[in-house]
Amino acid sequence: MAELSAVDASTAPQPGSCTSLPDTMAEFGLPVFPRRRLHSGRASGSGTSPDTARLQDVGTQRESEARHGVRLPLVTTEPTTLVHPTAIVEDDVRLGAGTSIWHHAHIRAGASLGTNCVVGKNVFVDAGVVIGHGVKIQNNVSVYAGVTLGDAVFVGPSVVFTNDLHPRAGNTDWRIVATSVLEGASLGANATILCGVTIGAWAMVAAGAVVIRDVQYHELVGGNPARRLGWVCRCGETLPAPRDRALIEATLCGNCGAVTEPGP
């Protein structure tokens, strides 16, 4: 299989095409951004260094822009970053080495993703969102402005974040309410996270739960509204600790043998 370059704007459709996605975006006053193909971190041609290949890609893009009378932003990524051709990555986005952006994802301007992240199909990452290292976001998730994801966070399919406590369609002076998901926490499929809460480090939210309050360090919650179901180890297994009180003493995991200390 032929290797693909990091930037491929030379095949941009001619202006006026009724089937052109860029033309449709322009018709509605939306900015048009280049699509970037999967980048393997190797040269796109035999005997060519990755740096030289990327410079050639940029040159190709600029030649295409001159032909079509447009100017498209460039996104700087690490050589091992993978961006699917159908994904949209806006200007001023930071993508760490080893991060993969898959089908139909949309990463807005100013967002920052760390190293070795996986962003699944149809994921939306809002402007200015900060995502740590080693984060996995499964399909059909929208990470709105005000949401911060720490290192090693898992976000299951169709998890719902919010960022407005008093939403109205015509409200022009609403304010963003921040939500934090701390290191190692896991959010199960279809969970809903009310804005303004903090999900503690290594906590676990069950599938379908509706979280309306803070979740403690290593706490397992589920239901609507979400309530404590117990405590979990870093490995994800349930700890043999009473669920009716806080985790106040060191607890040994029967699965991996790790000891979970009381949280802050």
Quick summary:
This protein is mainly beta.
According to CATH, what is the topology of the domain at 152-264? UDP N-Acetylglucosamine Acyltransferase, domain 1
Strand order of the largest sheet: 1-4-7-10-13-16-19-21-22
How many strand segments? Answer: 24
Distance between the termini: 52 Å
Query: How is the main sheet built?
Result: 9 strands, mixed
Per DSSP, what share of the residues sits in E-state strands of 2 or more residues? 15-25%
Mean pLDDT comes to 79
What can you see in these coordinates?
The structure is a single chain. By secondary structure, this protein is mainly beta. The protein has a domain of 113 residues: UDP N-Acetylglucosamine Acyltransferase, domain 1 (3 Solenoid). The protein is 10% helix and 21% strand. A nine-stranded mixed β-sheet has the order 1-4-7-10-13-16-19-21-22, with no helix packed on it. Strands 3-6-9-12-15-18 form a six-stranded parallel β-sheet, with no helix packed on it. The longest helix is centred in the N-terminal third of the chain and has 19 residues. 34% of the residues are buried. The N terminus is likely disordered.
List the defining traits of the structure above.
single chain; 264 residues; mainly beta; UDP N-Acetylglucosamine Acyltransferase, domain 1; nine-stranded mixed beta sheet; six-stranded parallel beta sheet; 24 strands; disordered N terminus
